[in-house]
UniProtKB/TrEMBL annotation:
Phylogenetic lineage: Eukaryota, Metazoa, Ecdysozoa, Arthropoda, Hexapoda
Name of the protein described by the UniProt record: Reverse transcriptase
Classification via PANTHER family: ENDO_EXONUCLEASE_PHOSPHATASE DOMAIN-CONTAINING PROTEIN, REVERSE TRANSCRIPTASE DOMAIN-CONTAINING PROTEIN
Length: 311
């Protein structure tokens, strides 16, 4: 702690003393200080300091979402139909093909369903109804009236409205939580609801594997040596170099297989590539041949997109 170096601040007829003190914790934050006599008011000098204090603003909650209100389905389908896939079809690299496919779709998605970012200062409060908001506004008006006129009648009215709001919010919260948890069939739904309300921390993002993809592939390739004796015959037959397509072969992926596989997907989660399953389903008429080409190129050349291996 440090003392601001004022001169004598208390003056009597026969003496002057440093009676008034100002103590700071960091001299570098002291921007200005001074004192002024106010003999007409007191024997003490008026002292002041100008201190540099950095206030921490409350961090809002930022949410990035896609604005579906801007979606024009006719324009979206027209853009999908007009994609030039020449570069993708001509490439001999699986990674380049996947990158080109993702880039083309994301460009159209961002154009037709743009990303928006909103900042929320407060946590979500789905239990707040319009009736509760109306009572809150009445409470705030009563508080302003009481602070202005400072009479007991206005204070009692404000206190009654304040207590009423607290009771309404408490009951609404209880009802909302009970309804949410009673409808949750799985534990993950409960945890998702708690994260949405900000009652627990969100999952950490950006986690990385402790091992590279190549190390994992090598490990699982070597683990074949640990097969049981009964499976050793099958392994020996496969490793003998004799290929019998009746026993094992890759089937050519057909358009109906692609359509059927995507139709079976029931997750609405967006992957790291940012492609939305809902928009993908809408445009399957135009995208099925390209997805079919990607699958068959991967199987025929024995390669797998590195981008997908990292997911």
């Amino acid at each position: 702690m440090q003392l601001v170096p004022y001169k004598s601040t208390h003056h009597l007829r026969n003496s002057s003393t440093l009676l008034d003190l100002s103590i700071i914790d960091d001299r570098d934050k002291l921007m200005e200080y001074g004192q002024q006599d106010v003999a007409f008011l007191s024997a003490h000098d008026l002292i002041y300091v100008k201190y540099r204090i950095k206030t921490q603003r409350r961090c809002g909650r930022r949410i990035t979402y896609r604005d579906w209100s801007c979606l024009d389905m006719d324009a979206f389908m027209s853009d999908i139909c007009g994609i030039d896939w020449t570069v993708l079809l001509a490439s001999n690299s699986m990674d380049e093909k996947v990158e080109e496919f993702n880039t083309k779709l994301i460009e159209i998605f961002n154009k037709q369903v743009p990303l928006r970012t909103r900042c929320f200062k407060n946590l979500p409060a789905p239990w707040l109804t319009e009736d509760i908001r109306r009572v809150m506004r009445s409470r705030d008006q009563a508080r302003r009236a009481w602070r202005r006129y400072r009479c007991d009648r206005l204070y009692n009215r404000y206190k009654a409205l304040r207590n009423n709001v607290q009771a309404l919010v408490r009951d609404a919260k209880k009802e909302h939580y009970m309804r949410m948890f009673s409808r949750a069939g799985k534990a993950e739904e409960i945890w998702r609801g708690l994260r949405h309300l900000g009652l627990i921390k969100a999952r950490a993002e950006g986690g990385r594997l402790r091992h590279t993809v190549e190390e994992l592939s090598e490990f699982f390739a070597q683990s074949a040596e640990q097969l049981e004796q009964g499976d050793g015959i099958v392994l020996e037959e496969v490793c003998s170099g004799v290929f019998n397509e009746d026993n094992f072969h890759w089937k050519y992926v057909k358009p109906e297989s692609v359509t059927k596989a995507i139709a079976k997907m029931n997750s609405n989660a967006v992957g790291a590539d940012g492609i939305l399953l809902s928009l993908l389903r809408c445009s399957m008429t135009y995208l099925t041949p390209i997805i079919e080409h990607l699958f068959n190129f991967s199987l025929m050349n024995g390669v797998f997109p590195r981008y997908e291996r990292l997911q």
